[in-house]
Each structure stands twice: as C-alpha cells, then as structure tokens.
C-alpha cells in the first residue's frame, strides 16, 4: 500500500486506494502519563452529490475535504491544481483509486458529463 502525507498536514496521510488516515502518536498527559494512539482510518461520509468526504481537525480547526481531491493533490500535485477539477475516469464517484482519477478543466469536465 503506497501512502503519502497530505500536503497540508503532518498528522494525516492518504493511500492510492482512497483511504485517509490519522497518524498514531504519543501524548504526555498533565499527570505525566504517556498515552499511545494508534493510526486510525478516518470514516468517510457521502455528500448529496455522491462523493466521499472526510472530516478532521488540524490545530483545532475542522476541515471537510473530498477524498478524490485529497488523493489527487497528494499523489499528483500540479502547479495549477486549485483551478482544476478532479474527474473520476470511469464515472463512479465511489471509486477513489488513484488510477481512476485525473485533473480536468471545468470545461473538459462539463464536456465529458454531456456524453
């Protein structure tokens, strides 16, 4: 399983198959006891448009991110990715495998959906 840290978080990583994890860590409590936390796969919910989404916190700030976009941003970052859309090549919004995802312009994505 190939995995990489998300571009904006040192505590979360994505896999090529579309799973998002929180990295395990050790925390020292106020009483001096060290607690170990295992890596944990984040649960995914489905948006009303059928896309998988994860919710997580970084430094107390809640983020809601689409899984297919996280996978592409992590494994295939390109300079202008903020202006592009993520496309599921096979049209299946539940298939967030890296090989099924590509960057498209809004125009290209709309043209593809018309077929």
What's this model, at a glance?
By secondary structure, the chain is mostly beta strands. It is 15% helix and 38% strand. It has helices at residues 67-75, 106-113; strands at residues 3-5, 12-15, 20-22, 25-28, 34-37, 40-41, 44-46, 52-58, 61-66, 85-88, 101-104.
Can you tag this structure with a few keywords?
single chain, mainly beta, 3-stranded antiparallel sheet, 11 strands, 38% strand
Structural class: mainly beta
Poorly predicted runs: none
CATH first level: Alpha Beta
The mean pLDDT is 91
Might you state the CATH topology name? Homing Intron 3 (I-Ppo) Encoded Endonuclease, Chain A
- Rg from Cα: 16 Å
Q: How far is the first residue's CA from the last residue's CA?
A: 34 Å
Order of helices and strands: EEEEEEEEEHEEH
Q: How would you write the strand order of the largest sheet?
A: 1-2-3-6
The assigned CATH architecture is Alpha-Beta Complex
Q: Proportion of β residues?
A: 35-45%
Summarize the main sheet.
4 strands, antiparallel
**What count of domains describes the coordinates?**
1
């Amino acid at each position: 399983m190939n995995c990489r840290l998300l571009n904006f978080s040192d505590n979360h990583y994505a896999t090529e198959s579309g799973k998002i994890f929180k990295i395990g860590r050790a925390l020292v409590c106020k009483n001096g006891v060290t607690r170990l936390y295992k890596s944990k796969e984040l649960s995914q919910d489905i948006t009303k448009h059928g896309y998988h989404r994860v919710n997580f916190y970084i430094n107390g700030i809640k983020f809601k991110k689409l899984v297919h976009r996280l996978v592409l941003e992590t494994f295939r970052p390109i300079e202008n990715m903020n202006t592009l859309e993520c496309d599921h090549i096979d049209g299946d919004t539940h298939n967030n495998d890296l090989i099924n995802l590509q960057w498209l312009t809004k125009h290209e994505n709309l043209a593809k959906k018309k077929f």
